[in-house]
Amino acid sequence: MRIGLVGVGRIGAFHARTLASLDAVDELVVTDADVDAARSLGAELGVAVADDTTALLAAGIDGLVIAAATPAHAALLSEGVAAGIPTFCEKPVAATLTETLALTTLVERSGVPVQIGFQRRFDAGYRRVQAAVRAGELGFVHTIRANTHDQAPPAATYIATSGGIFRDCSVHDFDVVRFVTGHEVATAYATGANQGADFFTAAGDVDTGGALLTLDDGTIVLVSATRYNGAGHDVRLEVLGEKGSLGVGLDHSLALDSAESGVNFPAGPRHWSFMDRFQPAYRAELAAFVDVARGAAPSPCTVRDALEAFRVAEACELSRATGRPIALADITGA
């Protein structure tokens, strides 16, 4: 397999190293708007470098991985699909709901396999909970708690184009709740606040957000997100059911101290970034994409999945702005 990769920033370079290590990838070709950065990574990994995206798409690649900056995703995904090349794209596929809807239609009509980068679907803990829920081990599920707490905020320049905490951060929780339960969100009620850097307010964003979701079967989902969690990177899912409960992220890496006397849990070490926390999942999702690209498996996370998660994020942002609950049926992009 010959795989092409666009974007060699932090996540792109990480993906390049992963792809170069996969047995199924015979050759990797990278490119970036910053040609010097692409050449530097190419020299480090001993892989080919294309001068630009046009040259990359013409290089006879079997699959395309998009890890460029968010504003470039929609155009690059469209180019990959137009060339008939199976494509992996980091989330979000586009900056707006209208554009995401248009891309979903384009991809589904094309028949070109596309996989979206929601790596939590490939984490062992989330997959274990999904299996338990789908098998009825927990009985009926009545409450889910989903947390994404970053240890420290990204740069102000990133926040300005991120789309907001629900679209950028909590969207992973929205996707994995759908993945675990098999149900859709019916209503969303969200809020947010700023106590940190001024650049969040300047961007119209918040550094901490919370949402109360109701699924179409009545399950209540409590979502928490923050850019300031000094204890460490804390990503968890707790699924509470009639017959039992399961949690993801409740191991010794948990970024939370117990106030109870004599308790030595968690013992550490803790995670300090999402790339550290989900390294095995990132490797698994790219291995899965290689199978998609060679026609051995369908996409495990489609553009339609990305659209549905984005709709929940849109509902949360609208709820935060208006102070009222939002029905997902009203989030149409029209």
UniProtKB/TrEMBL annotation:
Protein origin, superkingdom: Bacteria
Keyword annotations of the record: Oxidoreductase
Residue span(s) of domain GFO/IDH/MocA-like oxidoreductase: 126-246
Domain Gfo/Idh/MocA-like oxidoreductase N-terminal: 1-118
Listed Pfam families: GFO_IDH_MocA (PF01408), GFO_IDH_MocA_C3 (PF22725)
UniProt-recorded Gene Ontology molecular function terms: nucleotide binding; oxidoreductase activity
Family: Belongs to the Gfo/Idh/MocA family.
Official protein name in the record: Myo-inositol 2-dehydrogenase / D-chiro-inositol 1-dehydrogenase
Lineage: Bacteria, Bacillati, Actinomycetota, Actinomycetes, Micromonosporales
